[in-house]
Amino acid sequence: MYAALLYDRNGLDGPGGSWCAARDAPRASEISTARRACYGPLVPFDAILGQSAAIATITRALERRRVHHAYRFEGPEGVGKELAAMAFAQALVCTDAGAEEAGAPGGSSGAADTRFGCGSCGACRRAVTMTATEPVVPLHPDVVLVGRGVYPPELIGGKKEASEISVEQIRRVVLSRTGYGPHEGRAQVFVIRAADELSVGAANALLKTLEEPPANTYFVLLTAVAEALLDTIRSRTLPIRFAPLSDDVLTRILRKNGVDEARIEAAIAGADGSARAALDATDPELTGQREAFVTGLFECLHAPDLGAAVRFAEAVGAERASVAVGLRAVAVTFANFARQDVVKSPSDAERGAVSYGLVLDALDALERNGAGALTLMNLIASLRAGRQARPGSPPRIVVTRR
C-alpha cells in the first residue's frame, strides 16, 4: 500500500513546480519497491486538492509556530495525505532566511502565501527529491521515510517485511537518528507510510520517542485505518482528517491526466473518493486484471461447491492491495446490476444491492488488516448464500461492517 497521491502522472495539479509518482511495478503490489517519486522544486499546500480543512489546520499551526511534535494524517488512500506530509516536511526543513523571519518553522512569505517552503534552497529541494537507487527515500538526511518494503532486508536486520513494519526498521531507521537531532540544524521529520502496519513491537518501540521527542523532531503517521493503531500510539498523535475527494475534484484530476471524457464517470463511480483508485480504473493493464478478478469471482458463485472459491482465494489473495483493487471492481459491477434491474426486476435489483453491501463489508474487513484469502472466502460464501435466499431474506453468512 502506498500513500502518495497521483494527482498527475506528469506533474502537480496546481501552481509552484511539479510533483509526480511513477506507478508501482506491478502496480497492485503493496510491497513493490519500484515506486519512484519526485516532489519539486516545491510542494505548495494550496495545490493539494479537496482537503481545505486538513490543510488549514496544518498551515495554521505553521503560521502560529504551534507545530505539534506528532501528527496522524488519517483518511482513505489516494486523497493527498503523503503529499501534505511532504509539503509539511519541506516547510519545516526550509532554510530560506526570509522564511525563518516570517514566523513558523519553514516560514511564510506572506499572509496569502501558503507554500511555506521556499522551493529554492537546498534543503527544500532535497526534502522532496527521491534517491535514484534503493531504498527510494528523500535525499535530505532530516526527512526520513518509514514504511513496509521501503528498505531492503539487508538494511533492517535481514528479514523481509511481508506484512508489517518491523521493529528492526524502527530501531535502525528512526531510533538510531533521534538521539542525535537534526543533521542540518532546523528540524528532523519522520513520515511513516501506512502506520497501521506497524508491528506491535515496532509501535511499542516508538512510544517513548512519541511521548518525549527530542527538540525539533517531528512525526507524521499516515493511515487509512486509524483504529488499527495501538491506543497508545493514537493517544500520542494529533489527528488530522483527510476526506474522500469530491466527484468534481476527481473529474479535474482525471481530465488533467488526459482521461477521455467518456471514461470519467465510470472511473469515479468505483473510486470511492480516491484519486488513485480513479486513475487505476483508467489504466489499461489494471483494467485487464480487474476484469479477470471479476470473472473469476463470478465463476466461484456459479460453481457447484466452494472448491473453486478456495482455489481462487489462494491464487489471488496473497496481496491485500490486489484484492482491494479487484473487490472495488466487483462492487461497481453489482452496483451497475442493481441500477439496471431496479425497474424491470426489483427482486434482482435487491439482490444486487445486498451483494454490493457485502462487497463493501469485505473491503472494510480488508482495510482492518484482514487476510486477503480469508476475506475473499467469507465474501464468496456470503454471496453464494445470498443468491440462494429469497428476495428480502438476509444472507446466512455476513461479514460485519464497522
Structure summarized in a few sentences:
With 402 residues, this protein is an alpha/beta fold. It has helices at residues 52-63, 81-93, 97-102, 122-127, 167-178, 200-211, 231-235, 247-256, 261-269, 275-280, 284-302, 307-316, 320-341, 346-367, 372-388, and strands at residues 18-21, 37-40, 70-74, 143-146, 188-192, 217-223, 238-241.
Characterization of this structure:
- It is built from 15 helices and seven strands.
- The protein is α/β, with parallel strands linked by helices and 402 residues long.
- It has two domains: 18-241, 3-Layer(aba) Sandwich (Rossmann fold), CATH 3.40.50.300; 286-402.
- α6 (200-211) links the parallel β5 (188-192) and β6.
- It is globular and about 65 Å long.
- It starts with 17 loop residues before the first strand and ends in a 14-residue tail after the last helix.
Number of helices: 15
Q: How many domains make up the coordinates?
A: 2
What is the CATH architecture term of the largest domain?
Answer: 3-Layer(aba) Sandwich
Largest sheet entry: 5 strands, parallel
Unreliable residue stretches: 1-40, 97-104, 106-115, 389-402
Globally, the shape reads: globular
Task: Assess the beta-strand content as a share of residues.
Answer: 5-15%
Helix- and strand-based class? alpha/beta
Question: What do we call the CATH homologous superfamily of the largest domain?
Answer: P-loop containing nucleotide triphosphate hydrolases
- Give the termini distance in whole angstroms: 21 Å
Q: Tell me the helix content.
A: 40-55%
Order of helices and strands: EEHEHHHEHEHEHEHHHHHHHH
Question: Number of DSSP strands?
Answer: 7
Give the strand order, joined by hyphens, for the main sheet.
4-5-6-3-7
Mean pLDDT: 80
Radius of gyration: 22 Å
Q: In the CATH hierarchy, what is the class of the largest domain?
A: Alpha Beta
CATH topology of the largest domain: Rossmann fold
Q: How is the quaternary structure best described? A: single chain
